[in-house]
Amino acid sequence: AKMNDLEAAVGLGNIDIFEEILSKRRRNMYYLIEKFRRFEKIFMTLQEEPFEKLGPHAFSIIIREGAGFTKDEFVAFLEAKSVDSRNLFYAMPTQCPSYAFLGYRRGEFPEAEYCSDHGTHIGIHQDIGLEQLDHVVAVVEEFLKSKGAAYF
Question: What rounded mean pLDDT belongs to the chain?
Answer without folding.
Answer: 92
